[in-house]
Design a protein that fits this description.
The complex is a heterodimer of chains A (about 160) and B (about 775). Chain A is an alpha+beta fold. Chain A has 2 domains: about 70 residues, Ubiquitin-like (UB roll); about 80 residues, DNA polymerase, domain 1. With about 775 residues, chain B is α+β, with helices and mostly antiparallel strands. Chain B has 21 helices and 29 strands. A 7-stranded mixed β-sheet of chain B has the order 3-5-1-13-10-11-12, sandwiched between helices. Chain B has a 5-stranded mixed β-sheet with strand order 7-17-16-15-8. A 4-stranded mixed β-sheet of chain B has the order 19-27-28-29, sandwiched between helices. Chain B starts with about 20 loop residues before the first helix and ends with a helix. The relative contact order of chain B is 0.12. The chains are: A alpha+beta (about 160), B alpha+beta (about 775).
Chain lengths: ~160, ~775
């Protein structure tokens, strides 16, 4: 089966098996920044933004989201201009093994899009679908607070936002 | 390094610089094993035993072989039967050789029957379903105490110990530890009162978010390349070579970024299988465990039952302590001896005023999923018992555990006979504690939790929950003395930058960053002037790997030594340059080491590292400035920790909420405080989750029923309490710039601190983990009824 997807702003036509998940299709297409952690929709390592909303890509049939816009962690920022969320995660010590981080930063992005000044409860709620075994979440929550501060001070950039 | 060295004198050590790979990881750019772009790789998967214990009478593979895209099926009939251990330990391993790639016997639900390689995941899945296995069921045993009868016997296929230690497969005993100091029986007889209690800890999954994964291929010279999510690249290379009977020199192991380890990836459980398929087919192979496979058939924390008997003397001191432990090793004996020994070795020296101590422990085979290394490594199990026992003693004596622990624990300048009596798989190494701020850790932690206000106050909040606080203290080690060895090399580039090559393995802990900071400190350059390449058996010198809390201390010392050796070469060239600049004789030894330069104190002239590098690479006495060094510790200086839980217990439901958790830790001089805190934070939350919700649930026939994150009970961000981690630095003379380890210790305290806090709140003692709502509720009901 063939599908057209807009991935990080670029339109791509991809061949895939009809039963393939969005996670499988993205990874096969070279988007290995989307991680496979459980395949059960429980860990959030495979989170991508689907038209701006976080989804577990292992639970989404690629066929069902043809024509839609997908943002991965690589689409949030570039090498020379990483997103303030990504730099905040790095600065706060929220990145240990980093396997969960691409999903974490996307969930954070989706949160801060709608809630630029979140409470701690809103932060933990937004991250509750992203499991991490390394950090104990403490520095991750600090990172989200810090990212929110940075984004509020510099609100114009919005590469992965809702369209 | 002189004693006068303090944090203030450091330029790079002690600074929370950004972890060097953090940004690439947060952008998803850094490569993990599954991200390697292989040329049309075969997919490799396993058929698992559906019975807890059985002889395989036949394996029908023809239907699987007929699935289009299937390349091969391998089982015990067409693979080497070499006995080995999957435990990635030093050689010869202290774990018994009781495992082979495949066997005609399966020993737990999840044991491997055969493997299939196919062109696609779909073909693999179909073929795995079409393998038909015939079994002759055997009696099974899940309780280690029942298994001690030797009925049924789980291992009788030539399994043996690789080192001279007790090994009794006829009694299902995978390992024995038996030490005695002083006269325990006399000590107990002399006591005013003897307190005997039994505590059990449960099986647990590491829950690395990245499962075990390996990629193998042949390079252009037909050498076998293994890209693996491993904590032990060099041990993996050695084990693959031995199991497949191929030269070590023909194998290269590369550890790229790795999605968590926690001990799970100290097990070599995939590499030999994928390597065999690559060697036989010439094809690249990828093998990635599913989450379910990870739960069932990788490795777990060994459950342990610990009985402590202590005699109380008139002064409140302990006249004797007897520790008996039964450890459930599961179907194989990975780390069976050393986890067991650490339950004593890392625990018993803490209360070092006890003169009579014995420890008798047995690791026992059962038909359950296999135990292995897990952060804390036996100490977690031992400290669950000891810290509750101390709390019980304090309640009996009517003393504050904060004061009791301050009084009776080990201090700087003191030792314990346990250090010498008990090591890892053999006798230990005697040592005198050279750095310890446990006393301040206890004071600061108690203050941060609000100990004096909350202890014994049984405060009730507006939701009717009763509040309580509990404490736990612990020590760990820094590597295994006289066993662990690390090495590193370094070379200098034109611009005065350096490439550091370290065998050490960064599991996401940030050890790459820590090692850079140590090298930069030695050289007095910015951390950004040092790049690191680590964990590639072809390119980096040997290192035992990341386990036993060894990397900062052992690998860090190797890095410091090699950086200082390179610095000597730089100094000599700088002296030549300064001779030229000043026209006078310049003594290299008199030069002042400044930031990326040496200065001649007489003339004030300097020679920069850049000048030194250009001269040595291109013009005079040409040479590559480079050095290598190895380090093996003669001691294992313990980090110390005091941990405090503030809980709220709902008397209606038994629900326990941890309100706040405080850890005050002495890890020597933290090389990177943010990374050190991160080690504690992560261990704490893992420990709380382990204590309260995580649990392996089995059917009566040993089948795991909850092999998913949600049903297993791992904490999410929404479940965590307020976490406070306080570093209480000391300066460890034997360590790199005063550092000790910090990776494991934080997981030892949560379970006992919470258990003690529950007792403080509602007066019930939870001796068995996990402390689920149901168990707490039942304990409260039982207490009310009596």
């Amino acid at each position: 089966m063939t599908g057209v997807f807009t991935i990080n702003g670029n339109e791509r036509t991809i061949e895939f098996d009809s039963g393939a998940t969005l996670l499988e299709v993205l990874r096969e297409a070279g988007h290995v920044e989307v991680k496979h952690g459980c395949g059960q929709g429980e860990c959030g390592a495979c989170v991508v933004l689907l038209d701006g909303n976080p989804v577990n890509s292992c639970q989404v049939f690629a066929a069902s989201v043809r024509g839609r816009s997908i943002t991965t962690a690589a689409g949030l920022g570039s090498r020379l201009e990483p997103s303030p969320i990504q730099t905040a995660f790095a600065d706060a010590g929220a990145v240990q093994c980093g396997f969960c981080t691409p999903g974490m930063v996307l969930s954070t992005h989706a949160l801060l899009e709608n809630t630029p000044d979140p409470t701690d409860d809103e932060i933990t709620e937004a991250l509750s679908g992203n499991l991490c075994r390394c950090t104990g979440y403490a520095k991750t929550i600090e990172a989200v607070r810090e990212a929110a501060r940075r984004l509020r001070e510099q609100p114009s950039r919005n590469p992965g936002g809702k369209r | 390094m002189s004693k006068s060295s303090t944090r203030d004198e450091f330029s790079v050590v002690g600074i929370p610089i950004r972890k060097v790979d953090a940004l690439a990881l947060s952008r998803g750019e850094a490569r993990f094993t599954a991200d390697y772009d292989l040329r049309s790789p075969l997919r490799l998967g396993f058929v698992y035993s559906t019975l807890p214990h059985a002889e395989i009478t036949d394996i029908h593979t023809s239907e699987a072989m007929s699935v289009p895209g299937v390349v091969g099926v391998w089982d015990y009939r067409n693979t080497p039967g070499t006995l080995y251990t999957t435990a990635g330990q030093g050689f010869p391993e202290p774990s018994p050789y009781d495992y082979s790639l495949f066997d005609s016997r399966v020993r737990y639900v999840g044991d491997r029957v055969c493997m299939v390689a196919a062109e696609s995941s779909a073909a693999l899945e179909e073929a795995l379903n079409r393998v038909h296995v015939e079994y002759k069921p055997l009696p099974s045993v899940f309780d280690p105490e029942e298994a001690l009868s030797g009925m049924p016997r789980i291992h009788d296929h030539g399994e043996h110990a690789a080192i001279p230690v007790p090994y009794e497969p006829e009694h299902n005993i995978a390992a024995v530890v038996d030490i005695s100091i002083g006269d325990v029986e006399a000590g107990l007889r002399a006591a005013d009162e003897v307190i005997t209690e039994t505590y059990t800890t449960h099986q647990a999954s590491h829950c690395c978010i990245e499962t075990h994964v390996v990629a193998t291929y042949l390079d252009g010279k037909d050498r076998l390349v293994i890209v693996s999510a491993t904590q032990v690249p060099f041990h993996a290379r050695r084990i693959v070579s031995r199991v497949l009977d191929i030269p070590i020199g023909s194998v290269r192991v590369i550890k790229p970024r790795i999605g968590g380890g926690f001990g799970a990836k100290q097990e070599v459980i995939l590499e030999p299988y994928a390597a065999l398929v690559t060697l036989q087919t010439g094809r690249a192979v990828r093998c990635e465990l599913s989450r379910r496979e990870e739960f069932v058939s990788s490795r777990t924390r060994h459950p342990m039952k610990v009985t402590l008997s202590t005699g109380l003397g008139g002064d409140g001191g302990i006249t004797a302590l007897r520790m008996d432990a039964i450890m459930n090793s599961g179907a194989y004996g990975a780390h069976a001896l050393t986890v067991l020994s650490n339950a004593g070795a890392k625990v018993l020296p803490l209360f070092n005023k006890i003169e009579n101590i014995s420890f008798y422990g047995r690791s026992v085979y059962t038909n359950l999923p296999v135990g292995g290394a897990y952060r804390g490594y036996g100490a977690t199990q031992g400290y669950f018992a000891l810290n509750q026992h101390i709390d019980i003693i304090c309640r009996k004596l009517g003393v504050d555990p904060v004061e009791y622990c301050r009084k009776w624990t080990i201090r700087t300048g003191e030792t314990s006979p346990i250090f010498e009596a008990l090591g890892e798989g053999k006798e230990g190494v005697s040592q005198v504690i050279q750095s310890c701020s446990l006393d301040q850790c206890i004071t600061r932690g108690a203050s941060a939790i609000g100990w004096s206000d909350l202890r014994d106050a049984k405060q009730i909040d507006e939701d009717g929950r009763v509040h309580g606080v509990g404490m736990a203290i612990a020590m760990q080690g820094s590597g295994i003395p006289l066993i662990d060895m690390a090495s590193a090399s370094i070379k200098m580039n034109e611009d005065g930058s350096f490439n550091l090559f370290a065998g050490a393995t960064d599991l996401g802990t940030g050890s790459d960053t820590v090692l850079i900071q140590i090298a930069a400190e030695a050289l007095k350059v910015d951390a950004s002037s040092v790049d690191i390449l680590s964990s590639d058996t072809d390119l980096t010198p040997f290192d035992v790997g990341a386990y036993a809390s060894s990397t900062t201390y052992v690998s860090g010392m190797a890095v410091k030594k090699c950086a200082l050796a390179a610095l000597d070469q730089i100094r000599a060239v700088a002296a030549e340059i300064l001779r030229g600049k000043t026209g006078t004789e310049v003594d290299a030894g008199s030069l002042a080491h400044e930031h990326a330069a040496f200065r001649d104190p007489g003339s004030g002239e300097t020679a920069t590292f850049e000048e030194v590098a250009y001269r040595s690479l291109y013009s005079v006495d040409q040479q590559q400035i480079q050095a290598a060094a190895s380090f093996s510790g003669e001691t294992s200086p313990p980090p110390f920790i005091a941990q405090f839980a503030h809980v709220a217990v709902d008397p209606e439901t038994g629900r326990v909420d941890v309100v706040k958790f405080v850890s005050a830790v002495d890890c020597g001089q933290p090389i990177n405080p943010t990374l050190a805190e991160g080690q504690i934070d992560g261990a704490v939350v893992n420990g709380i989750s382990f204590a309260l919700t995580e649990e392996f649930l089995y059917t009566m026939d040993g089948r795991l029923t909850n092999s998913s994150f949600g049903r297993y009970g791992i904490f999410t961000a929404a479940d965590i309490p307020e976490i406070e981690t306080i570093l209480v630095p000391t300066y460890e003379e034997t360590g790199p710039y005063g550092a000790k380890s910090v990776g494991e210790i934080g997981i030892n305290g949560p379970a006992p601190a919470i258990a003690n806090a529950i007792f403080d709140a509602v007066g019930v003692r939870l001796r068995d983990l996990p402390m689920t709502n149901e168990r707490v509720y039942a304990a409260m009901k039982e207490a009310a009824a009596t």
